[in-house]
Design brief:
By secondary structure, this protein is an alpha/beta fold. Helices cover 49% and strands 15% of the residues. The strands form six sheets. It has an eight-stranded mixed sheet. The protein starts with 6 loop residues before the first strand and ends in an 8-residue tail after the last helix. The model has no long low-confidence stretch (mean pLDDT 90). The structure holds phosphoenolpyruvate and magnesium ion. The site of magnesium ion (MG) has 4 residues, from helix 33.
Length: 931
């Protein structure tokens, strides 16, 4: 080794150089240099560690050891104590600390410097024999297991043995005598296992301890940790070693130890917050033998120290411009700060402290925004399980719609509705849900299904309503007939209580307490700052006036996607929609459509009224129409059931005659009753089992079979449906434009956008545009006003991306439907992928993420970039957005900002998250790159 400087006193190390001094070391240097009361110490650099590991032999290099001894001499001078002095011994801690924090991955040795000779000195100073032997046994064990490589096992065995002997249930139940015995027996273990006594020379101890920390950098735990968290050598190479004077909070009643936050981490209140214990050391707090006291009680107990703590809190915040979580020790009325780091807080506290710190001039608005991770806001938007609750997971399904809820199990939508009307909380439990279950969704607290992925009907509808949903819970079987379910082997009946957590997919038996979202006013202020920074607008996907209201409340700048089929699903409309589908002639169909028109118009009017002037993008009907009808299986079951019932009733009609023939006496006795029953059954048959009812079901079945497709998602849907059934699209277009006209007439402002789904060629768009032009003319004539609107398309088909230049000739705006575009790009059907192979793909890192949740920037994202480039060549001011589910996630938002999209649209509760993420995207744009 050359005479490089390997050792830095806390007073001289560069507090910013984490690479050289490690995170902890740099922080200790920094704290010392800004005048915080850190116990004296020094850092041995990461370079020394690398040099040691490269030399591949035991023992520290003489030059390094010389520098360490020099630093120790300085410590002795600063503390007035001496390393190894029997009367006034200097004790130190030896801790690892790499550039990136790796909690618990490397080794730490405390109380180094204790030996047979220094023990009495410390007992004399502390007047606490138990404490000293406790410290000694810790140093022997740590040192021997780490420094000598003996592991913990032989020491744990001795410990258990002595505890048994003294009938001590826990470590803390042992007194000084028991601990002294442990120390003696530990020494014997070392002698036996190594053939030499426990090293008594403190410098030998120190050298071995430093080596042990150096070596732990390449220990299995640490290597695995770095691999797991992707810590590269550029990020951290080698560990530094921090040697710090030990201070004791347990030397008497003028001593204490504690942990504090510079502000309250639960509420954000600007007041010192924390706990302390008089005459104790850190481990006592952890062991829980005594209850710590709230920090405010320190004020009367040690007024001067409390003032110092107050000063310390301000100094820390001024320096780090962030709420700090710090550890302190008071040794003989002198305050020491041992460590500080950024405080972890809940979302409400983060928001309050952000606003307060801006007002106090501690941070800028930009910094206030950047310190809050957008996803954290979910705490304020969805109910969640109480983190304090003790829970046992019954089973886990797919986290289909975030939030937590509990309620009584019900197995059908009608029951959900009737129970909730009685004020009961219910969870709708089904194998899967269908459009006509919608009233059950409104009534239930949450939805649990045994089948279906994150795009199943249940999942999609629950998300749009902001209700928790766990789908695809394969560990559940349901018997609708007996109204029972078996979940993970546990039988449950209707009325039993269940809790679901749609954020994690977990299901729990019984009630787990939940915490309601705490939408705080301060968030609105913060989001206004965010909006001023961001270049992307945030819109919402919302289909009903209720959802639109919520979107507006969360600050959506418009509705980016209104899926009109969701309006068809409501219970008062579904029968009309079914009539429309089943119509045998155009006239019949037109009659149903005429009934739908005013209903849709009223919905649109209400949405326009709520969004008054903000863009409202209405998508014409998209899904295959068979989705509005019952499934063939269901119909077959119903028809078979009805037929069997009819046969049974017919059989019952002959029962009196059969009885008379077999046993006239018995017939005589029951004849009156039998007649009444037979008449009743006949009436039932005539009323409910008429041929016409069975025939009607058979008609529906024929239609369902005729509409059946092999790949419905790639089949007769979207614009293809609009072209084959022009009446449906025409009705919707008329409803939009008439609603717009009426809204204008009533003095409102308006910005409707008509959006066509599933387009793959300009010709399709032209086809629909012809209806639009015609109807627009008619509406303007009828209302005698100008009705402004925009016409655009979704981009969710790969061919549409490739033809974006042509499509842009007609489309005034484009919205990427990345749910479908991802399916199309990967050729994965989402349901099958999520249920069958995506989990394995993720596990084996064939794909890093589920592309239906996290936008696939490298594939789908590239397609989006090409599309935008070509579209804007034709129409430079083309408004482009994203309305697939990925659009509400911060990573996708960063990308969308980078490629200069105009807006993102997401479900209403994600709007605040997206607004914050859009501001983050702008503030961190310089660091973003496409890899
Ligand atoms: C999409 O495909 O991304 C989209 C928004 O449409 P949907 O999810 O309704 O198919
Ligand atoms: Mg789509």
């Amino acid at each position: 080794m050359t005479t490089k400087k390997f050792v830095y006193a806390f007073e001289e190390g560069d507090g910013k150089n984490k690479k050289l001094l490690g995170g902890k070391g740099a922080n200790l240097c920094d704290m010392t240099q800004i005048g915080l009361p850190v116990p004296p110490g020094f850092v041995i650099t990461t370079e020394a560690c690398l040099a040691y590991l490269a030399q591949k032999k035991k023992g520290l290099d003489a030059e390094l050891m010389g520098q360490i001894k020099g630093a120790m001499a300085d410590l002795e001078q600063k503390t007035g104590k001496r390393f190894g002095d029997p009367k006034n011994p200097l004790l130190v801690s030896v801790r690892s600390g790499a550039a990136i924090s790796m909690p618990g991955m490397m080794d730490t040795i405390l109380n180094l410097g204790l030996n047979k000779e220094t023990l009495p000195g410390l007992i004399e100073q502390t007047q606490n024999e138990r404490f000293v032997y406790d410290a000694y046994r810790r140093v022997i064990q740590l040192f021997s297991s780490v420094g000598l490589g003996l592991g913990d096992e032989p020491f744990d065995d001795v410990f258990d043995d002595v505890k048994k002997k003294y009938k001590a249930a826990q470590d803390v139940d042992l007194d000084a005598k028991g601990l002294r015995e442990i120390c003696d027996r530990f020494m014997q273990v070392v002698q036996q296992k190594t053939g030499t006594p426990f090293p008594q020379d403190p410098y030998v101890q120190l050298e071995m301890a430093v080596e042990a920390v150096f070596r732990s950098w390449m220990g299995k735990r640490a290597v695995d940790y770095r691999r797991e968290f992707g810590i590269t050598t550029e990020m951290a190479s080698g560990t530094a070693v921090n040697i710090c004077t030990m201070v004791f909070g347990n030397m008497g009643n003028d001593c204490a130890t504690g942990v504090a936050f510079t502000r309250n981490p639960a509420t954000g209140e600007n007041r010192l917050y924390g706990e302390y214990m008089i005459n104790a050391q850190g481990e006592d707090v952890v062991a829980g033998i005594r209850t710590p006291k709230p920090i405010r009680e320190l004020r009367p107990e040690m007024p001067e120290v409390y003032q110092e703590l107050e000063k310390l809190r301000h100094t820390l915040e001024k320096r780090y411009r962030e709420v700090q979580d710090f550890e302190f020790t008071i040794e003989k009325s002198k305050l020491y700060c041992l460590q500080t780091r950024n405080g972890k807080m809940n979302a409400a506290a983060f928001i309050k402290t952000s606003i307060d710190m801006v007002n106090e001039g501690l941070i800028t608005e930009d910094q206030a925004i950047l310190r809050i991770k957008p996803d954290m806001l979910a705490q304020l938007l969805y109910p969640r399980l109480d983190p304090e609750a003790k829970v046992e997971i019954l089973t886990t399904g797919l986290p289909a719609s975030p939030g937590a809820a509990w309620g009584k199990i019900v197995f059908d939508a009608d029951r959900a509705e009737s129970k909730s009307k009685l004020g009961e909380k219910v969870i709708l439990v089904r194998e899967e849900t269908k459009p006509d279950d919608i009233h059950g969704f409104f009534a239930a607290q949450g939805i649990l299904t045994s089948r279906g992925g994150k795009t199943s009907h249940a999942a999609v509808v629950a998300r749009s309503m902001g209700k928790p949903c766990v789908s695809g819970c394969e560990n559940m079987t349901i018997s609708y007939a007996t109204r029972e379910a078996v979940i993970a082997g546990v039988p449950l009946r209707e009325g039993d209580v269940l809790t679901i957590d749609g954020t994690t997919g977990n299901v729990f038996q019984g009630r787990v307490p939940t915490i309601e979202p705490e939408f705080v006013e301060d968030l609105l202020v913060l989001l206004e700052w965010a909006d001023e920074i961001s270049e992307l607008d945030v819109m919402a996907n919302a289909d009903t006036p209720e959802a639109v209201k919520k979107a507006k409340k969360y600050g959506a700048m418009g509705i980016g996607l209104c899926r009109t089929e969701r309006m068809f699903n409501q219970p008062d409309r579904l029968p009309i929609v079914q009539e429309m589908i089943l119509a045998e002639s155009t006239d019949e169909r037109q009659a149903s459509i005429n009934r739908l028109l005013p209903i849709q118009r009223e919905d649109f009017k209400e949405i326009f009224r709520i969004m008054n002037g903000y863009p409202v993008t209405i998508r014409l009907l998209d899904p295959p129409i068979h989705e509005f009808l019952p499934s063939a299986d269901e119909l077959i079951q119903e028809i078979t059931h009805l037929r069997e019932l009819r046969k049974t009733i017919e059989g019952m009609a002959t029962l009196p005659d059969t009885l008379r023939m077999l046993d006239p006496q018995l017939h005589e006795r029951y004849s009156a009753n039998l007649e009444a029953i037979t008449l009743g059954l006949e009436e039932l048959k005539n009323k409910h089992l008429a041929e016409t009812l069975i025939e009607a079901k058979e008609v529906v079945l024929r239609k369902v079979r005729a509409l059946a497709e092999t790949n419905p998602m790639l089949g007769h849907r979207g614009v293809r449906l609009g072209i084959t059934y022009p009446e449906i699209y025409s009705m919707q277009i008329r409803a939009i434009l008439e609603a717009a006209a009426e809204h204008i007439k009533s003095g409102g402002r308006i910005s409707p956008e008509i959006m066509v789904p599933q387009v793959c060629t300009l010709e399709e768009l032209k086809w629909v545009h012809r209806y639009v032009s015609q109807i627009h003319k008619e509406v303007e004539k009828k209302f005698r006003i100008d009705v402004p609107f925009h016409f655009g398309t979704m981009i969710e088909v790969v061919r549409a991306c490739m033809r974006a230049g042509r499509i842009a000739e007609l489309a005034e705006f484009m919205s990427f439907g990345t749910n479908d575009l991802t399916q199309a790009t990967f050729s994965f059907s989402r349901e099958d992928a999520e249920n069958k192979f995506l989990p394995l793909y993720k596990e084996h890192e064939i794909l890093q993420h589920n592309p239906f949740e996290v936008l696939d920037i490298k594939g789908v994202g590239r397609l989006m970039m090409i599309t935008m480039e070509w579209a804007r060549k034709t129409r430079p001011d083309m408004k482009v957005g994203i309305c697939g589910e990925q659009g509400g996630h911060p990573d996708a938002i960063r990308f969308c900002h980078y490629i200069k999209m105009s807006y993102v649209s997401c479900s209403p509760p994600r709007v605040p998250i997206a607004r914050l993420a859009a501001a983050h995207a702008k503030l961190t744009e310089a660091e973003f790159s496409l890899v």
